[in-house]
Write a structure and sequence with these properties.
With 246 residues, this protein is α+β, with helices and mostly antiparallel strands. Helix content is 28%, strand content 31%. Strand 7 and strand 8 form a beta hairpin.
Length: 246
């Protein structure tokens, strides 16, 4: 009887040793499985076993982890598509919003219309155009180049007006099929009581959309020297503002 017990003990111990060795070997080669880490502490240990043991025998609806991941990936993909569509829609709105531009035509761009009687009287200093003649008006012109298809929204003319006459500036256009010039807009100084330095603004124009089958220019009339002691009439520069779609 004692011999039988001894043999059984030896066999049981051998089985336990083999099982322990195998378990240790498995632990050495096993990889961490996130789904077995029930308490999310980054380690699969006795605490996870206790949780399983505590729930042993319970029943319910199983949770398909793979399906949940696939559903999450699908949701993320749909959100990415929705965000992409939103970004595209915002971009389209920005494209349709009108953009603004501006050009400044300085006095240096103006040339005096040829009139022998004004030689030595009509001046372009690069900063202003002026007329030193005592009796005759002087005419100056400057080319204007705007992008095709833009719409003029505002024109501002800067001048010096010392007396009762007025500095007049026309924005004109003309093409080779028309013998006459078309006036897009006319701006002038007050010509009353000599306000001195100032500006005139216009926000309403004819032919406001630029059509570069036409040529465009500014034409300025500078009155003769004022009898007013304040002196000469000047045109300084003109600013043209416009809108366009990008």
């Amino acid at each position: 009887m004692k011999t039988t017990i001894l043999v059984f003990t030896i066999i049981f111990a051998s089985l336990f040793l083999v099982n322990t060795t195998t378990s240790v070997a498995n632990l050495a080669t096993s990889k961490y499985d996130i789904w077995l880490d029930l308490n999310d502490d980054g380690e699969i240990n006795i605490f996870d076993v206790v949780m399983v043991a505590s729930a042993y025998g319970t029943t319910g609806t199983p949770f398909n982890k793979t399906a949940a991941l696939l559903e999450l990936q699908q949701d993320i993909a749909e959100h990415d598509v929705a965000i992409g569509n939103l970004v595209k829609a915002v971009g389209n709105i920005e494209v349709r919003l009108p953009q603004t531009g501006m050009i400044s035509i300085s006095a240096a761009a103006f040339g005096c219309d040829d009139n022998p009687l004004l030689h030595g009287s009509a001046y372009n200093t690069g900063v202003i155009i002026t007329n030193m003649n005592l009796t005759m008006d002087a005419y100056f012109s400057a080319p204007v180049q705007l992008p095709h298809g833009v719409t003029i929204t505002r024109i501002t003319c800067y001048w010096h007006d010392p007396g009762d006459a007025a500095v007049i500036c026309d924005l004109l256009r003309m093409n080779n099929t028309q013998p006459h010039r078309q006036i897009i807009d006319t701006l002038s100084s007050p010509g009353v009581a000599g306000p001195g330095h100032g500006s005139t603004v216009s926000t309403t124009t004819n032919y406001a959309t630029i059509d570069n089958t036409y040529q465009y220019c500014l034409s300025a009339l500078i009155p003769p020297k004022s009898v007013n002691p304040a002196g000469f009439y000047w045109l300084k520069y003109v600013i043209i503002e416009y809108q366009y779609s990008s």
